[in-house]
Amino acid sequence: MMKTKDHLTHLQLLQLPMMKMTKYPQSVKINLLEKENPLTNAMKEHNTYMQESDKKMLAEMKEQAEKDRELRKEELGAFKDSMALLASARKSWVPSRIPWHFLQVPLQEEQNQ
């Protein structure tokens, strides 16, 4: 496959004038440029790996967010239930029952007199 100058990297374009001085035909020169530049290939592989890893990480983050959302819904439901129980307990509390600590103060005052 013949590559045009549009498909070459900047480094490969800089190397073209040097390649013109050699005896190879143009198609071989471009293939040689690709083989001579392992950094470009390594960077392509690295970028591909990073994109795949980003996609995996994003999928894991979405999955974790879904789990957290469900957990928060359950916690909110439990909180509402406990608040409803507390409210019903407050309503059923009879005000005629006076807690013991309220009675201690008047008893002590009577004993002092």
From TrEMBL:
Protein name: Uncharacterized protein
